[in-house]
Design a protein that fits this description.
Layout: H1 2-13, E1 20-21, E2 31-32, E3 34-37, E4 40-43, H2 49-66, E5 76-77, H3 85-92, E6 95-96, E7 101-103, E8 106-108, H4 115-137, H5 147-164, H6 166-175, H7 182-193
Parallel strand pairs: 5-6
Antiparallel strand pairs: 1-2, 3-4, 7-8
């Protein structure tokens, strides 16, 4: 999809497609020609024949060069403030859509203050979380470790290594004053950690 992104950026840079102007009132002009996520794409361009023919040309070039097919049967053209959708849809050979539309499972073009829009999303998340909760909580918790138990297990792991690996014993033994026996020192360390 990186190649398609570069082609669309270049087409926007040279004026083949206009893209979406984000802030016309400021001096820094930012135009967005597309949004990509995995294999989902939203393209932005003007609502005239020439721009749509240019967009179609860019898409055909992408298909020819990279050998990937864009499924126009699953694609939709959604117009903002335009009256001749049928003619423009014929140029791209795709269906006509309308707002609100779903992109990545979220409604685009729906009123953000409309509770019905958010209720659908909240219900979907509750269903997913319920399934996740049933699947993971029944297997012994969320996978969050008790820090005390984890620390104890890690310390015992090191004690076991200390007792079973001769080189490690020699290194640690050289650090411990010779007047204190090794067992007494280990017991004192255990007492500090395992209160």
């Amino acid at each position: 999809m990186e190649a398609l992104s570069k082609l669309l950026d270049r087409a926007c840079d040279i004026g083949m497609i206009s893209g979406l102007e984000t802030s016309p009132s400021t001096s820094s002009e930012l135009r967005i020609s597309h949004l990509l996520y995995a294999d989902d794409t939203i393209l932005f361009c003007g609502d005239n024949d020439e721009e749509l023919r240019n967009l179609r040309c860019v898409l055909l070039c992408f298909e020819a060069v990279y050998g990937l097919k864009i499924n126009m049967e699953r694609s939709e053209i959604v117009l903002v403030r335009s009256n001749y959708a049928a003619a423009l849809a014929d140029i791209l050979d795709c269906k006509i859509g309308s707002f609100p539309l779903n992109y990545l499972g979220l409604p685009v073009g729906a009123g953000a203050r409309n509770k019905d829009v958010w209720n659908v999303i909240i219900d979907r998340m509750e269903r997913k979380l319920a399934g996740w909760k049933k699947m993971h909580l029944s297997k012994g918790g969320l996978g969050i470790r008790s820090l005390v138990n984890f620390s104890k297990a890690l310390l015992w792991k090191w004690f076991w290594r200390f007792a079973n690996e001769r080189l490690l014993v020699l290194v640690f033994a050289s650090r411990i004053p010779s007047k204190i026996s090794l067992k007494v020192r280990i017991t004192s360390i255990q007492g500090k950690f395992f209160v």
